[in-house]
Amino acid sequence: MQHPDYEIRRFRAALDGTGEDARADAVTGAWIEAVRRGFHENPPVPGQVERMVGFYRQDDRELTGAYATGTPDGAVDTAVPVATFGTMRHTLNTGAALLPTHQITAVTVRATHRRRGLLRRMMTEDLRRAADAGLAMAALFASEATIYGRFGFGVAVERESLRIDTRRGLSLVGGAGGAGAAGQASADGAGATEFVEREAIADIARAVFARWHAVTPGSMDRQASYPGVIDGTLREEDLEPDTAVRGAAHWAADGVPDGYVTWKFSGWETGPTTVRVRDFVAVTDEAYRALWNLLGSLDLVDVVTWEHASVDEPLRWAVADTRVCAVTEREDSLWLRILDPVAALQARPGGAPGSVRLAVTDDLGIAAGTLDLVSADGRLTAVRVADGVTAGPESEAEVTLSVAALSSAYLGGISVLTLARAGAVDGDPEAVQRLAAILATDRVPQCLTDF
Ligand SMILES: CC(=O)SCCNC(=O)CCNC(=O)[C@H](O)C(C)(C)COP(=O)(O)OP(=O)(O)OC[C@H]1O[C@@H](n2cnc3c(N)ncnc32)[C@H](O)[C@@H]1OP(=O)(O)O
């Protein structure tokens, strides 16, 4: 059979009707169905698609579908897109600013239409449109690490999965170890830790996460459905209530919550008995230690697991026995793609004072150019000196790297020196060292938002 042609359509999610009777309109419903098939998800339960549409609208997501046209024998159902691509905008904490960022999600291509360039076409068009709209940065989470480097994305944040043996408690260094006693003063004395009813978690989570997002490099702000997924009012699989979710919070001495954790118990059927942390956010060190003390104090629980730990997690340095805290996996978390190097670099902090002339290569042409980068007083200034990277001697660069490598180095999570040793950064070693010092940061980035 001859390959069909494809028409790309972009639209917003919409409902037909109002109130209880509202239903996803045909185009939106077909797009969501294509995504579900692409990720091998079960058919939706009644009302689930409509709830998703509500969240998509709150996030102002743009939905892109590729539709097969001109099939000679009409064998392809042209109402359901053969490929999907979703985008929305939230802010990224760069370490110096909250940068509006173009997020890409829900990328699927039907198996019968794969490897014909549909992803390349949607991605290329989308990144150009985002750059034309003035966005300096794009971001995604990758299903496979081999797909997105070719489009200029680099891993900027990594994360670790921890398996913590709590059979003997955690005995946090510097803590009294008794924070698990509900309602009592926390480990460091001033605040208090307490279990929280599910209905109360979302409000606490919203407020605490907003503070955490404002101060944590690598954090992406969260989409509309997030509070419900955290507190169990929206189970991820079907957006139905998940009554197995439990939670606790920590209140500072002034009575304001400064940390929370939610979790699920794995059940009695399998051993060791395990509590799986769903979300752990603490804006003060006191709250951080008190909440880990609480998790370590849960009776009848042998193991606590958490899949969103930083690669520089303080927990292992807070426990007396560092071996109770095992890393079971380390994987890429947030991928970034710089669209406008001048705007993106000026939105991040400067490290050591100094300057360097930098050439950025970009196979898609969006971010390519030669820049003068100056770091002073903790700020970066970037000036474009040439559009290309092969201009005359007056714009010759000291360091050359791809936009993917620069995006990996952007938050300071992946060192320029490490990238240079990997062959991803070219230049005189002294100039590479200077760039590394300019982009160095004092905090490893962490992202607690999946999208
Ligand atoms: C941000 C997110 O949503 S992550 C989720 C991504 N989606 C999935 O994993 C769902 C299952 N997979 C799919 O739907 C598809 O296979 C996709 C989306 C990964 C790829 O779509 P396709 O239309 O087949 O990709 P397309 O034909 O445009 O290929 C573009 C390039 O990527 C390469 N590529 C595509 N998929 C992969 C892969 N899984 N691994 C490595 N390379 C890949 C192609 O070889 C091609 O390379 P080239 O242009 O440099 O020669």
UniProtKB/TrEMBL annotation:
<dbReference type="InterPro" id="IPR022902">
    <property type="entry name" value="NAcTrfase_Eis"/>
</dbReference>
<feature type="active site" description="Proton donor">
    <location>
        <position position="148"/>
    </location>
</feature>
<dbReference type="GO" id="GO:0030649">
    <property type="term" value="P:aminoglycoside antibiotic catabolic process"/>
</dbReference>
<dbReference type="InterPro" id="IPR025559">
    <property type="entry name" value="Eis_dom"/>
</dbReference>
<dbReference type="Pfam" id="PF17668">
    <property type="entry name" value="Acetyltransf_17"/>
</dbReference>
<feature type="domain" description="Enhanced intracellular survival protein">
    <location>
        <begin position="343"/>
        <end position="447"/>
    </location>
</feature>
<feature type="binding site">
    <location>
        <begin position="107"/>
        <end position="109"/>
    </location>
    <ligand>
        <name>acetyl-CoA</name>
    </ligand>
</feature>
<feature type="active site" description="Proton acceptor; via carboxylate">
    <location>
        <position position="451"/>
    </location>
</feature>
<dbReference type="Pfam" id="PF13527">
    <property type="entry name" value="Acetyltransf_9"/>
</dbReference>
<dbReference type="InterPro" id="IPR051554">
    <property type="entry name" value="Acetyltransferase_Eis"/>
</dbReference>
<dbReference type="InterPro" id="IPR036527">
    <property type="entry name" value="SCP2_sterol-bd_dom_sf"/>
</dbReference>
<dbReference type="Pfam" id="PF13530">
    <property type="entry name" value="SCP2_2"/>
</dbReference>
<keyword id="KW-0808">Transferase</keyword>
<dbReference type="GO" id="GO:0034069">
    <property type="term" value="F:aminoglycoside N-acetyltransferase activity"/>
</dbReference>
<dbReference type="InterPro" id="IPR016181">
    <property type="entry name" value="Acyl_CoA_acyltransferase"/>
</dbReference>
<dbReference type="InterPro" id="IPR041380">
    <property type="entry name" value="Acetyltransf_17"/>
</dbReference>
<keyword id="KW-0012">Acyltransferase</keyword>
<comment type="similarity">
    <text>Belongs to the acetyltransferase Eis family.</text>
</comment>
<feature type="domain" description="Eis-like acetyltransferase">
    <location>
        <begin position="240"/>
        <end position="338"/>
    </location>
</feature>
<feature type="binding site">
    <location>
        <begin position="143"/>
        <end position="144"/>
    </location>
    <ligand>
        <name>acetyl-CoA</name>
    </ligand>
</feature>
<feature type="binding site">
    <location>
        <begin position="115"/>
        <end position="120"/>
    </location>
    <ligand>
        <name>acetyl-CoA</name>
    </ligand>
</feature>
<protein>
    <submittedName>
        <fullName>Uncharacterized protein</fullName>
    </submittedName>
</protein>
<comment type="subunit">
    <text>Homohexamer; trimer of dimers.</text>
</comment>
